[in-house]
Amino acid sequence: MAAALVVGVGIGNAGGETEEASSSAAAASSSSAPSPADGTPIPAPVTVTVTETPAPVTSSAPPPATATAPVVDFAMPDLVGLDLQTAQNTIQADGVFLSRSHDLLGMRNQVLDSNWVVCTQNIPVGQQVTGDAEGLIDLGVVQREESCP
Fold first, then answer.
1. Phi and psi dihedrals of 74, rounded to 5?
2. Residue 141 confidence (pLDDT)
3. Looking at the predicted structure, is the pLDDT value of residue 143 above 70?
4. Which tens digit of pLDDT belongs to each residue from 56-93?
5. In terms of pTM, does the model score above 0.70?
6. Closest CA to 132 of 65, 69, 67
7. Whole-number Å distance between alpha carbons of 72 and 78
8. Containing H/E element for 30?
9. 100-103 and 138-143: which strand pairing?
10. The pLDDT of residue 56
11. Element (H, E) at 133
12. pLDDT tens for each residue of 108-136
């Protein structure tokens, strides 16, 4: 990319002079300095061209992997009677890291998974689970001190 930079030079009060001194200096310079009216050429502004060269792109890292869900192949274990945390650990050991659970007796959230017991599972025991099963396993739970409906 090329860009032009125009540089100009100006004369003015640098801040240390009084207004009278500045006026008299301006009058003296205007009477003796060349001007376009008397035909003396004024120097042209200086043009500077800046060219930016992008840094070469080097990468030793492998290209990013595409996000694909793990493909699983296992027989669904019997999770009924286990606490929810143990049931989730069992499913995760088979490669499914996202499972669902719901309260069979209401709309309560399962905050501490070890305080909930699995009563139902949507995939029957022994059924083969293959492919992308993330989020497809659903467990019906009640609190530890409650009975399954």
1. -155, 160
2. 98
3. yes
4. 766 666 666 666 656 899 999 999 999 999 999 999 99
5. no
6. 69
7. 17
8. helix 19-32
9. parallel
10. 72
11. none
12. 999 999 999 999 999 999 999 999 999 99
Give residue for tokens 């043009």: 47
CB-CB contact of 122 with 137 (8 Å) = yes
Q: How far is CA 122 from CA 19, 104, 135, in A?
A: 92, 13, 12
- E strand segments, 36-137: 46-51, 72-75, 100-103, 116-121, 128-131
- The backbone region for 74, taken as left when phi is positive above 0, alpha when psi lies in -120 to 50, beta otherwise, is beta
Q: Which two tokens stand for residue 69?
A: 């869900």
Which residues fall within 8 angstroms of residue 69, CB to CB, at 6 or more apart? 132, 134
Tokens of 116: 């909930």
